Amino acid sequence: MKTVLKKSCLILIALFIEIAMCAQESDFKQKALQQFGKQNYPDAISLLKQALSENPDDAEIYYYLGYFSHYIVYDSRPFIKEGDKWSKEEVIKYLEKAVALNPQYGDAYYFLGAEYGARALEALRKGDIQQYRNEIINGHKANGLPDWLIEFGRNILKSCEENAILITIGDAQFNSLQYLQIIENYRKDVTVLAWGIFNRPWYVNLIKKGIPDILVNTPVSWTEDQIFDMHPYKWDTLTLEIPVSDEYIKKYFLSPKDSIMRWELKPDMSTKRGSYLSSGTALMANIIETNKWERPVFFTFGFSSSSLAGLDSYFQIHGLANKLLPFKTEETNFTYDINSTEKILLDPSSYEHFSDLKEHDMPRISPVFVYTYRNILFQLAQYYATKGNIQKAGNIISKMEKFLPETIYPIHPKFKEGIENFKNELKTSTKKKDGR
Question: Do 309 and 367 belong together in one domain?
Answer without folding.
Answer: no
